Amino acid sequence: MTNTPTPHIGAQLGEIAKTVLMPGDPLRAKFIAENFLEDVVQFNTIRNMFGYTGNYKGKRVSVMGGGMGMPSIGIYSYELFNFYGVDNIIRIGTAGSLSEKLNLRDVVIGLGASTNSNYASQYNLPGTFAPIASFDLVSNAVEAAKENNINVVVGNILSSDTFYCADKTATDKWRSMGILAVEMEAAALYMNAAEAGKNALCLLTISDSVLTGESLSAEDRQLSFTEMMKIALEIAK
């Protein structure tokens, strides 16, 4: 852990907590820091990917944007795990529902992250790797949701490399395998955590439905998804 600051994170060692909450949108990181944390110090502004460290109920917690897509969160989570000594990264993002069980604003816990990405090819494994969340973080998130009367759905999600997919049959194929929702980052985060021997979890709020065409505004996605933020903050350690 001598490669700090990194090309993408301007923090010095010790400025980032052991647990980092990671929304995709850096403005959501700013919102969390300003509304949930005390004694906040900003540790990153490089590329406007804001990062902050503060206190939540006496616990030291960091929050930082991770960007869009697996290459972006792959860079940031790798550097946090391997150069800054971070033990836990909790992604708090948005997703499109693929299931009739889910409505707008529902919270999903990504137990596993199926993917159409080639991210795992770098490991030269003799088979197919299954990216999964840390069991402790999953179980703690379920318990925190119960304690705060927040309904969550736990299951398999899809981390997709494509937002606009040319294969118009892909959604139905993933749905047939029980995929709950689609997002673009969790699989890379889970793989980086596995390789580093660290912990990762993805919490998602449904911002739109692939089935019905319903969607929420960009402002809603940035400012109003407080239930998953609260779960993530409660389980930070």
Write structural notes for this entry:
This is Purine nucleoside phosphorylase DeoD-type. Pfam families: PNP_UDP_1. One of its GO terms (cellular component) is cytosol. The chain has 237 residues and is α/β, with parallel strands linked by helices. It contains 7 helices and 9 strands, in the order E-H-E-E-E-H-E-E-H-E-H-E-H-E-H-H. The mean pLDDT is 95. The two termini are 21 Å apart. It has a single domain, classed as 3-Layer(aba) Sandwich (Rossmann fold), CATH 3.40.50.1580. Helices cover 30% and strands 27% of the residues.
Biggest sheet, in brief? 5 strands, mixed, barrel
Shape: globular
Question: On the 0-100 scale, what is the average pLDDT?
Answer: 95
Domain count: the total is: 1
User: Count of DSSP helices?
Assistant: 7
Helical fraction equals 25-40%
CATH architecture: 3-Layer(aba) Sandwich
Task: Give the CA-CA distance, first to last residue.
Answer: 21 Å
Task: Briefly say what this structure is.
With 237 residues, the protein is of the alpha/beta class. The protein has 7 helices and 9 strands, in the order βαβββαββαβαβαβαα. The protein has a single domain, classed as Nucleoside phosphorylase domain (Rossmann fold), CATH 3.40.50.1580.
Note the topology.
Blueprint: E1 19-22, H1 26-36, E2 38-44, E3 51-56, E4 59-64, H2 70-83, E5 88-97, E6 107-115, H3 135-147, E7 152-159, H4 170-175, E8 181-183, H5 186-196, E9 199-209, H6 218-223, H7 226-235
Parallel strand pairs: 1-4, 1-5, 5-9, 6-7, 7-8
Antiparallel strand pairs: 2-3, 3-4, 5-8, 6-9
